[in-house]
Amino acid sequence: MSKKTGAAPLKWLITGGCGFIGTRLIAHLTAEGGHQMRVLDNLSVGTREDLANVAAVLEISQKTLSDVSKGQWPESGVALIPGDIRDPETCRAAARGADVIVHLAANTGVGPSVDDPESDMQSNVIGTFNMLESARHNKVGRFIFASSGAPIGECQPPIHEGLAPHPVSPYGASKLAGEGYCSAYYGTYGVHTVALRFGNVYGPGSGHKNSVVAKFIKLAFSGEALEIYGDGKQTRDFIYIDDLIRAICLSASQPDIGGETFQIATSMETTVGELVERLVPVLEASGVSGVKITHGHPRVGDVRRNFSDTTKAAQRLKWQCRYSLDEGLKKTVEYFMQNQRFPDQ
Question: pLDDT tens digit string along 195-252?
Fold first, then answer.
């Protein structure tokens, strides 16, 4: 991404900033120039090396965390604070002096939440509460919360912001709780929260992700079969990473959106079977032939149909997606070809 979003230079705290979305956001902010950045990450998924690939890293130890508490920010690069969002003291120290918090750190995905709902709750509910408290006490100007369509649950799509939520997985319930706390902290304390319900995000930098696009590409490169859960007719809304980053940046700067929730997706419904049909030719063009496809049992907690109506984001955020699925898949496969090591095909 090279085009400016129009945001003035800000002090950004990005939780989970070593991950897929966080590193792409940091790369974008670095390219814009003028921004000062901190990352709070427990390094359970993303690594120091992932962060160092997009920006110079100054690591903050627990011994020097008091300097962060005094409001010191790096003039260039990014300050990495290894820590957990379940620790309120670390959260509050990390948020000192921030203009905007982008809260990406979370347990992600339905499957892990079904296997361990308590861990999902601790990360996604308690962790979000700690970050909101940190924003409140530090008078942070904007709080951007990474949500998803999971709080809505089963419905007749497209999903829009006016639908009543009925989550069908612990992950959906924990994200709904986060949205609820964001609304409450805006209404009660005046914290300017913005909840973004991400579609299924994919793109360059997703090597650690186990979501469907990244997983299928990694399986294909490794010569393993692509397993589709159920009949493959379940639908999702696949959004390319750079479109998502623009939405985050606009959420940090757009006026009069405190307390609001936005669907951030493409407004296009794609079955998992159709995704595979479009991905396989891209893989074959990259030299990966003989891709095998299998069908497994449906996954507990998955919704059948899921895509979004992004009218509100277009009107209030002045945001629309720009990348087609075919463009995004090509760029993503190119990334894996250039940056990942796989067994010989």
Answer: 999 999 999 999 888 889 999 999 999 999 999 999 999 999 999 999 999 999 999 9
In 123-186, where do the E strands start and end?
142-148
* Residue at 247: amino acid letter: A
Stated as kind and residue range, the H or E segment containing 337 is: helix 325-339
For range 291-302, the mean pLDDT: 90
Which residue in the list 171, 185, 186, 335 is annotated as catalytic? 171
- 182 contact partners, CB below 8 Å, separation of at least 6: 128, 132, 143, 145, 191, 193, 194, 195, 259, 261
pLDDT at 344: 38
Nearest-angstrom CA–CA distance, 70 and 72:
6
* Alpha-carbon span 183 to 260, nearest angstrom: 8
171: annotated active-site residue: yes
Q: Are 14 and 22 in contact (CB under 8 A)?
A: yes
Of 75, 247, 222, 216, nearest to 147 (Cα)?
247
